[in-house]
Automatic annotation (TrEMBL):
Signal peptide: none annotated. Residues 59-72 form the CCHC-type domain. This is CCHC-type domain-containing protein. InterPro entries: Znf_CCHC. Keywords: Coiled coil, Metal-binding, Zinc, Zinc-finger. One of its GO terms (molecular function) is nucleic acid binding. Residues 161-216, 242-283 form a coiled coil.
């Protein structure tokens, strides 16, 4: 909210803080409300039943009713100062003197004799002659050195604790990773156990099948042996039959050979007989008189 105030405000208004113990200035009555109106722009001593004057005001900046132009936010200039003002040497010296005086007063306020009069202070400071204050100061310095040493030790222990905490964090992270790996290995072991159970079941089935196949193989072996023996006995029988047939064939061949020889002999005898007959015919053809005498007829 812009708190710009003009010198042309109506009515007597006091902007200074009250010095008589009141919280805000009093004007028309003992009980009133003192506040800065966001429409009027003044610190008003307004009764609870009073109405703000800015309700019927007209703003020439934004052309709206309800507030004065000095309280308008239509074209508000930025309060930021891009180029801060550089202090002069005298101002810097003045600020340093003020700060030094403030620090001295702050340090003096921490002593137990701060706020005492000169006489009371003199009664206290007279004990410096017996060097009790120096002894007390030396004790304080010694205790301060001891405190510094303890602080250094505590800092060292704190650094060690920080290192231990970092290592603890790293160990926790590694422990989490190991837990994850352990869970993965547990899952892998469970999967392997399930597969092993399945393989065991399959192995049992295979063993049962192998036993069955062995029994079948034994039965087939026995059957083959029996068939082999039957085949051998049959072969022996066939061999004897074949031997008998061969002997019979050989006998028949010999008999056939003998028949062929007899047949050849007969053919030879027949050829001899034919030759004789042919010779007789030739002889008869050369002697026709003998043929007519015998009563034959002439062959044409």
């Amino acid at each position: 909210m812009n708190t710009f105030r003009s010198n042309n405000m109506e009515g007597p208004c006091n902007y200074q803080p009250c010095r008589n113990g009141h919280q805000f200035p009093m004007r028309k009555a003992d009980t009133c409300l003192d506040f800065l109106c966001e429409y009027y722009g003044k610190t008003l001593n307004v009764f609870t039943y009073h109405r703000c004057y800015a309700v019927n005001a007209y703003c020439y900046k934004c052309r709206h009713h309800g507030h004065f132009a000095r309280m308008c936010n239509f074209h508000v200039k930025s309060c930021e100062n891009p180029k801060p003002k550089k202090k002069s040497k005298s101002n810097i010296q003045r600020d340093s003197d003020r700060m030094r005086t403030f620090i001295e007063k702050k340090q003096m306020s921490q002593f137990p004799f701060q706020g005492l009069e000169d006489k009371e202070l003199s009664t206290i400071t007279c004990s410096i002659q017996d060097e009790s204050a120096k002894q007390h100061l030396n004790k304080l310095k010694a205790s301060h050195r001891i405190s510094l040493n303890e602080i250094a030790v505590l800092k060292y222990e704190n650094s060690k604790m920080d290192t231990v905490m970092k290592e603890n964090v790293m160990l926790r992270n590694s422990l989490d990773e190991l837990n994850l790996e352990r869970l993965q290995h547990v899952r892998l072991i469970q999967t392997t156990e399930r597969e092993l159970a399945e393989q065991t079941c399959r192995t049992e089935n295979f063993e049962i099948e192998i036993v069955r196949l062995k029994e079948e193989n034994l039965s087939l072996t026995n059957t083959r042996y029996r068939l082999t023996m039957d085949l051998k006995s049959k072969e022996m029988q066939d061999y004897h039959v074949i031997k008998k047939l061969k002997d019979e064939i050989q006998r028949l061949n010999i008999q056939n050979f003998n028949d062929i020889r007899e047949h050849q002999d007969l053919l030879h005898e027949l050829s001899i007989a034919e030759n004789q007959i042919e010779s007789l015919r030739t002889n008869y053809s050369h002697n026709p008189h003998q043929r007519q005498q015998r009563g034959g007829y002439r062959r044409r």
